[in-house]
Amino acid sequence: MGVVAEGGPLETIEYTVADGIATICLNRPAARNAMDLQLAEELLIVARRCAADRDIRAVLIKGNGPALTVGGDIRYFTECAQPYGDLFRRMTGPLHEAFRILSRLDPPIVTAAHGSVAGGGLGLVYIADFVLAAERTKFATGYAAIGISGDGGGTWFLPRLVGPRRAAEMYLLNKVLDAREAVEWGLITEVVPHDELTHRAEDLARELAAGPTKAFGQMRALLRASWDNTLSEQLVEESEALAATGNSADATHAIESFAAKRSPTFEGR
Q: Which of 7, 156, 235, 254 counts the highest number of beta carbons within 10 A?
């Protein structure tokens, strides 16, 4: 399969932007949104579009069909002529770059999970700020079952989200979490009734899209950096971020509105 053209039509993802919200909807429902090379390439395309569009104020990730994504497409793997390791290297190139870009956006990300979320598809959970899951959703790495080591940033994110012991359990023992356990472990934010998932996720995305986007971007960066910085380094970064956001149009308007006892209207500037 060749490289997907940046400006061409997308076949495995539905991508729309409306009212400041970019919606990334995985669209291989017959395959339960399993990831092949084309989906990985198209995810990178839409990640770059999100990064380039200054009018985007929030991102919503979801999936058509019975699952958000079951991870790698095993049938696709077996049909490819090249050795599996070479194929995995080709796939993780665009997939990991997409996750890297999405994790560094200013606009916050909401992921709506349902059915199953497994393997590299868990990257769509890791890079989100809020993850809403329908009841009966299952989460699993699944790598040990097929003798591979893992992708999607899980070895970086999982120890930070659930702790190193629980991360080892999910990787080495293929521990499957239901939605309630996923909340308890800190993997996701909230469990909602299945028929309310889309509505609740869209409402949350709209709420975030009405907020101070530049400040959100600095918050996302600071929270990410805190894992690797010393306290002194983090305090310096907080001062710099505060100076940057304090000079923004949104902060100026919001501070003046607060002083005047008015509700601010943020424009993401």
A: 254
Same domain, 226 and 166: no
Judgement on whether residues 199 and 82 belong to the same structural domain of the protein: yes
Q: How far apart are CA 56 and CA 229, in angstroms?
A: 29
Q: Give a yes or no: residue 238 inside a domain.
A: yes
Q: Can you spell out the DSSP letters for 13-75?
A: EEEEEETTEEEEEE--GGGTT-B-HHHHHHHHHHHHHHHH-TT--EEEEEESSS-SB-SB-HH
Q: Please check whether residue 85 lies inside any domain of the structure.
A: yes
Cα separation, 174 vs 166, whole angstroms? 11
Instruction: Tell me how many domains the chain contains.
Output: 2
220 lies in which domain range? 213-259
Q: How far apart are CA 27 and CA 68, in angstroms?
A: 9
In a domain, 224, yes or no: yes
Q: What span, in angstroms and rounded, lies between the C-alpha atoms of 246 and 141?
A: 41
Quick check: is 4 in a domain?
Answer: no
Task: Look over the chain and give the mean of its residue pLDDT values, rounded to a whole number.
Answer: 95
Contact 46, 26 (CB under 8 A): no
Alpha helix (H) residue ranges in 62-194: 74-79, 84-103, 123-126, 154-162, 164-172, 179-185
pLDDT tens digits, one per residue of 176-224: 999 999 999 999 999 999 999 999 999 999 999 999 999 999 999 999 9
**pTM of the prediction?**
0.93
User: In Å, how far are 77, 133, 253 from 267, measured between CA atoms?
Assistant: 45, 29, 10
